[in-house]
Design goal:
The chain has 173 residues and is α/β, with parallel strands linked by helices. It is 39% helix and 22% strand.
Length: 173
């Protein structure tokens, strides 16, 4: 069974993105082992002077990515960009290349999300992640109590996850 690290771009306790991760985890529990990363809001502020000795939280985060066959990122858009905690977490991986050629399923789930999605997609392309992507606008109307309630969104998620699993399988060959 493939191991997937899920990273929630929101630090809110019961965010729509966390609920989306939970829904995906439940839907794919027989196909994927999906584990949620520690809250990225607990990572220290990125400092290039600390790259050699980044501390325990950063080392654990990097190790979780390395141990995963793929990474699922579910994130909102903040101020038409990438949430600061998520950008900070990714910054800690740039010089150590954890995302290089790593299959990544990127879901931006927000009110609109287009600009934040594009910004994060650009960042992941620069660090050479192997990306499957989906933008879900108006997420608050499509997820309730850990369940995706919109059928079209469910179908889009299934297509994304099929592409993501194909990318992980291709990395085995």
């Amino acid at each position: 069974m493939k191991k997937v690290l899920a990273i929630c771009g929101s630090t809110r306790e019961r965010s729509s993105n966390l609920q989306l991760i939970e829904a995906i985890k439940a839907s794919y529990e027989t196909q994927l082992e999906i584990n949620l990363s520690a809250n990225i809001g607990t990572l220290p502020q990125f400092n290039p002077d600390d790259l050699g000795e980044p501390g325990e939280a950063v080392s654990l985060f990097r190790q979780q990515i390395n141990n995963a066959d793929g990474v699922l990122i579910c994130t909102p858009e903040y101020a038409m960009g990438v949430p600061g905690a998520l950008k900070n977490a990714i910054d800690w991986t740039v010089s150590t290349c954890e995302f290089s050629n790593k299959p990544v399923a990127l879901i931006t789930a927000s009110t609109l999300g287009e600009k934040g999605h594009r910004a994060l997609l650009n960042t992941l392309e620069v660090i050479e992640a192997d990306i499957a992507e989906l933008l879900i606008s108006y997420i608050q109307t499509k997820v309730k109590q850990g369940q995706v309630t919109d059928e079209a969104t469910n179908e889009q998620i299934m297509a994304l996850m099929d592409s993501f699993m194909n990318k992980m399988n291709a990395h085995d060959s």
